[in-house]
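Case study 2.
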Amino acid sequence: MKRRRGSRGQGLVEFAIVLPIIVVAIFGIIDLGRAVFTYNALAQAARQAGRMAIVDQDGSHVRATAYDYAPTLNLGPSNVDVCFKDLNSSQQNCSSSIDDCPPSERTIGCLVIVTAHISYVPMTPIIGTLVGTVPLTSTSIQPIEYVCPNDTVTTCT
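Prediction:
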């Protein structure tokens, strides 16, 4: 079979043009998978911390539970917000630092709001440049089921 004179390196040139697009698509899919994993770990941390808070209203125990359920995220005190609201509160986050349901007035039915948040940074530099930092947030709102007697015991279980 006789080749035409100008088509000798055509396959190599086409491959060189398509390869970067394929590589970026593959790493984009990997970064998307990492983002979904990060969000799921964040949601699990908020949910489990909320479950702890419905029986133990100690903020340090609640935060520690969130840290324990998302060890790969390296959550710190600035990444987990815990607040308590009364049953009639329309607030769905901890943006107000005032608890509507202070420890002395907590009753069964007060709401605990646990918000876990983190900034996700893609590992691929090209994707990171295109997308930037993505803030991920998960909130768990639960009613208190047991009020911790603060003066009789140090922990509630």
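The chain has one domain: 10-143.
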